Amino acid sequence: MDFKSFVEALLTGTPSAILVTLVGVIWQVVYVHSRDKLRDEQARRELNLELQKFEHQEKLDKRRFEHQKELETLRFEYEQRKWREELAKEISVKLVDIRAGEYATIWSQIESIAANKQESGKLTPEVTRALSEKVKAWRYSKGALVAEETTRDAAMAFQKALWDYDGSRTYRQMRKARRLFRNAMRADLGVGENIEGKTIIEITEQRNKIKKELQALQADLNISEAES
Description:
Elements: H1 3-12, H2 15-107, H3 115-119, H4 125-139, H5 142-145, H6 149-164, H7 171-188, H8 200-220
């Protein structure tokens, strides 16, 4: 019932009719108010639900982004580590190749002091000093540049022992220096005394053994740390 109808009912209707009309109007007002209130509550619930969905999705997106970021970081670190390992491997292979050539060059010269030379009387101080000069030249060439410190020290001891050779007394020192120099070069190439391949741990143990023997030889040859 609209307002005009309500007014007409009040003016023309009987008291009972007016009462009924009034009750109906009140009922309509209550109904409309309740309906609007329910609608508002429903709208608020729907809005809150949408907000909750949005916040939940936002959290999911944030977690997904963080997870993706972590994956990308791990992937980058893996690729970086892989690249470094491959580079280190390439450098190691190249280094061993260079060492093999440089070490073979100096070792081919050592034939001049072989044991049979000493037995035949061909091993003279002149011969050993000539070789000493060659070892000295090698120590300042690419060969020593790519060698480990132990190998360079062994070369220095070998050079000194060759120079000090007097024909008899110092022969054992020279041979010991030769052996240590040879073993040090083999360790640099990753092989043992018997030419078998060795692990890093085994090579380290071998090099430590060489260092220990080398220190005793350096003392016998009066080689100071400054000289080596």
